[in-house]
Structures are given as C-alpha cells and as structure tokens.
Fold this protein.
Amino acid sequence: MKAAIIGYGKMGREIERILAERGHETALIIDTDNAAELDAAHLAGIDVAIEFTTPQTAYDNIRTCLEAGTAVVSGTTGWTERLPELEELCRRRDGAMFYASNYCLGVNLLFRLNRELAAMIERLGAAYDVRIEEIHHTQKKDAPSGTAITLAEGVIGNLSAKKSWVNHAPGIECAAHRIDSPADAAPDQLVIGSLREGSVPGTHTVAYESEDDLLELRHTIKNRRTLALGAVVAAEFLCGRKGVYGMEDLMK
C-alpha cells in the first residue's frame, strides 16, 4: 500500500513507523511547510491518505483528497459539523473515506458499552444522572474531545432524560479530577468536563450516578501507538473499497 501522511506531528510520525512495520510505503508527507503540495499531482498513485491535522484544516484536506480520487482516512476532531458534506461528496464521486473520532479498539468497545448501558438504564427507568470527563495533553486544540462527543451522543440517543450536551471549559479546577455539573446546566443537559494536563494521551470517563451508587465506565490510552495502529488498520481496510466507513464497519 502506498500511503500519504497529512499532518506530520507526533501522530504522523507514529503512523509512519507503523506503516513501515507493516510493509507499506509512505510515498508522500504533507505538513505545514509544504501544505501547497497537497494536490492531485502529488496524490497521483497514492492508495490511501491518512489525515491527522487541525480542526481548521481537516475539511479542506479531506475534500482535496476526495476530489483527486484518493481514498482518505481521517481522525481529526473538532470540525465534524461539516462531515456530512464530505460524506455526500464521497458518495457523489464514488470515492472512499473513513472517519473516526478515536481509532483505539478499546475506546470503540467503550462506545458500544456506553450505548448499551444507557439503553438499559432507560428501560429500567432508573434515576441516574450522567456526566462525562475527558483528560488530554495540553497540546490538544479542541474541547471537548471528539471521543467525549461520541460518548455523549451515545447517551443522548438512548437516555430520554438527556437532550443535549454542554462543555465545562478546559482548565477548570476539579478536586481529584471530579467534574460536577455547573450551576447553570439544565437537568436535561449532559455535562462534559474537559481537563488539559501534561502529556496525557487521553482518559475518558462516563459516570452514571444515583442517590445510592456510582457506576463508571473509564478508558485510558497509555500511548499514541494504539491510535496510530488503528488508523493504519483502517487504511488497510479502506484500500480498494468505495464508500463511507467508520469503526463500526471495521469492527464487523
């Protein structure tokens, strides 16, 4: 597989290492200093582009790949209100794209467990409130994380007591990392607390609490390798396919 890496930060370098380990060729690397080279001419012959950049650049990067006829895998978060536009473009051009907010297998198992737990609580009519906490490194540019938003959507889609989510801004002081609902949060709002600390790759907690007990689902990423490996596996999956895919398709 001939791959392009779009975004050559820590994730991009880890992706490059894993591509080499799995016998693939990194034929093109695009970063801020050569962003103008992301065009059809440079993408010619590329099987799959793997895009991890910024919320400000992701849309244009992915669109360029699709318009050039290049399959693209993206894990950039913080911009996905425009994702449906690119999915439609992909289908219209008979292209291929794969998007996930998190490429770690364990996180995607967490997504499923969270949806099922919310649905069970709904069926039982149990009086549990829900909150989400996400902790990431200080270099992360968006808040809440895409993973936290996906978790929130899993709750909102299955628990009628929650209608929307609200973010408690990064940098807040919380004893023992405990995120409580801000005073102005409505009862039907799901609070996502965001903390930015050191070099933490990512910790996500979904807490279901009643007057009598506390039930928590938590996932902690130990290093970026698990995310990079998932992105490369997604690229392998996408190579030769047409259509729009995500981690649910890969896990099947």
About this structure: Confidence is low (pLDDT under 50) at residues 171-179. The first strand starts at residue 2 and ends at 6.
